[in-house]
Amino acid sequence: MADAVLAAADKYGLERLKVMCERALCMDLSVENAAHTLFLADLHSAVQLKTQAMDFITARASEVFQTSTWKTVVDSYPHLVNEVCVSLASAQCPFLEPPLKRLKRS
């Protein structure tokens, strides 16, 4: 029910309720619902939920990619697939991130 309440909270600008829904959805993340949760988080600008869903998918990518919900995301939301790929690449190859600037020595 938290996903429906999240939509209403987002629509009516009820930030505290939105945070409560995000928290509930984070606690309920599973291989089966992770892709749908990522979609919901993106749709409703739920930053914390999106981060948690992205981290969950990154950690369990091989399992999540086998679900029918992930296949729906691939077909309908390519921008989310791109974000997951970037997250996976960063997790696998941390050297792909921009290098830190060197401090000038005097």
Keywords:
mainly alpha, nucleus, ubl conjugation pathway, 106 residues, BACK_BPM_SPOP
**Uncertain segments of ≥5 residues (pLDDT<50)?**
none
Secondary structure: number of strands: 0
Structural class: mainly alpha
Largest sheet: none
* Beta-strand content bin: under 5%
Mean pLDDT: 90
**Helical segment tally?**
7
Ends apart, CA distance between termini: 60 Å
Write up this protein:
- It holds the Pfam family BACK_BPM_SPOP.
- Keywords: Nucleus, Ubl conjugation pathway.
- Residues 33-84 form the BPM/SPOP BACK domain.
- It is found in: Nucleus.
- This is BPM/SPOP BACK domain-containing protein.
- The structure is a single chain.
- With 106 residues, this protein is mostly helical.
- The chain contains seven helices and no strands.
- Helix 2 (15-27) packs parallel to helix 4.
- 25% of the residues are buried.
- The model has no long low-confidence stretch (mean pLDDT 90).
